[in-house]
Amino acid sequence: MLQTMHDHMKGIVTVVLFGLLAVVFIFWGINRDVVSSGTFAIKVNDRIFTPDEVRRAYQSQLADMQRQFPGELPAAFQNQIRENVVEGYIENELLLQRTTKLHYRVGMEDVTRLFQSRPVFQVDGKFNLERAKAILQANRTTTAQWERQARESMQITQLQSGLVESQFVTPGELARSARLELEQREMSYAIVPAARFVAAIAPTDADVNAFYEAHKGEFLTDETATVEYVELKRDDVAAQQAVTEDDLRKYYEENKDRYNQKEKRRARHILVAVARPEDDATALKKATGLYEKLKGGADFAALARQSSDDVTTQTTGGDLDWREAGGLEAPVDSAIFAMQVNELHAPVKSRFGYHILRLDGVQPAKQQTFAEVRADIDREYREKAGEREFGERQEKLADLAFSGTGGDLKSIASALKLEIRTIPGFSRTKGGGALGDNKSIIEAAFSDDVLNGSNSEPKELAPGDVIVLRSSAHKPAVARPVAEVKDSILVRLRNEGAVKEAQAAGDALVAKLTAGAVWDQALADLKLQPTPRAYVPRTDKALPPDLRTALFAVPRPNPGQVVYRSVQVNDGDTAVFAFSGVRDGASDEAADQRSGRLRELAARLGNGDLAAYTKDLEKSATIERNTKTLE
Fold this sequence. Notes:
- By secondary structure, the protein is an alpha+beta fold.
- Helix content is about 50%, strand content about 20%.
- The strands form six sheets. A four-stranded antiparallel beta sheet has the order 16-5-18-17. A four-stranded antiparallel beta sheet has the order 13-6-15-14. A four-stranded antiparallel beta sheet has the order 9-8-11-10.
- The longest helix has about 35 residues, at about 480-515.
- The radius of gyration is 34 Å and the shape is flat.
């Protein structure tokens, strides 16, 4: 299990940059409007990433790993995922800033095509606008935000593709790769199981006591405290705001310009693509013929489904949805906003080809009334008023926490009208209650100041959610009596002794074989069953991973020579193997295999160039990592 996870982790950086970030950035979007100073997780030049957005990406990747590897992931594995997410953000932002500086651009049609091709936005395999809007709204993302992030991601992909796909492989490199990666090694092996020796290991009381003294820190009771805290939440403050109708009307009048609804138009189009300049005349002729069919009464939607080259609108009959001016290619946009409802427009040329257009509807520009936007105004007003008051209360909370009240929460609760909550048995290792296992909260609860009776400084549970805590009782960790942990120590001593015995037996067997003993007979003497001698490739998944690594690390034997080695496998067993020959990778691969190898090697070299490119960008950038905010 751990070895599988380790092998999987080797590719995590690439997965994060080209997989995770594509999902997080392109699908849900990232908050590129955050530019203020304050708490941050990452800074890349003048771009700030908040702990909350990076934490969401980390949690997404962690959840994906947990689906693949059920059960609790080791802490080291979780830390590696967190580090890779942070580095992925940095690499992504460096590439985005470089492509922006180099004036890379992505057309709206490409973004629309991507948007409508997302399976999550489809129903029965077809794009569904209402489903897309509902999903985006549920995730607090607008279409404009999604499109912006998609454009930026595709912009980065242009640079990545240029670096990766421009790589080439020489015939010599391809041949060496085939020889090395397709190499097979002849071997046989047997397992010396550690379990065979467990019964013979008999630790004495002195052994148990010595182990206990050497590892006493591993046999402690759980340190706990009774934690009391008050919690200040921005949402609660906003909900408590007293708002009058006059307040809302005044807000409406002060922000009236924001409620000017611009004119929107809904059109359909049929695209006849022009892939090469020499195809222009043919495309125009086809577009003109389609236009004449429409003038003759042909159904626009049906003809679009049949003949349009725009795959993103083809299934919806060429529907371009409601759009404000400026949302499409300039020639197309200009034509649509000059047409009358139900008017057909002769072929219009854009950089994608010729568009035949029909205007289906117009939503005139208008001033939205107070009644129409009252619900939005009420929400905005409460949020802004709550934000201001939350900031003021947060400052007061900090002042009171460090004032002469010492460790008293009653005066804080009274002044800010907050409830004092209590969590008995709050653990140093697991936390507890509504505070969960938040590491920064656990550190605060068990800090010297708090354990000595002082209030903590305000600690953020989540954006807009702050607590001050104190400890009213403390139960330090103490060593458990040796008698209480003797059984677990005996198990560990027996297992560790058995592993050493298995290793010693394996080493002795290798020495005996190297001295001239016969393989089958030497194994039979120890009642070990060898595997049949066979050639195995580097990719053989049947071999224990550590055994496979050891086999391909041994220098090639001379003709007729057999090399014997031992290696620990399976978390304690010892494998003894006989290595007797090598077959170089075949140079006469089938054409499809050779082509696949060529692509794989070129991609590997190209990814190396991309990594070097981003490292060079990093050298000239100002980067700060504040990963403590993610713990």
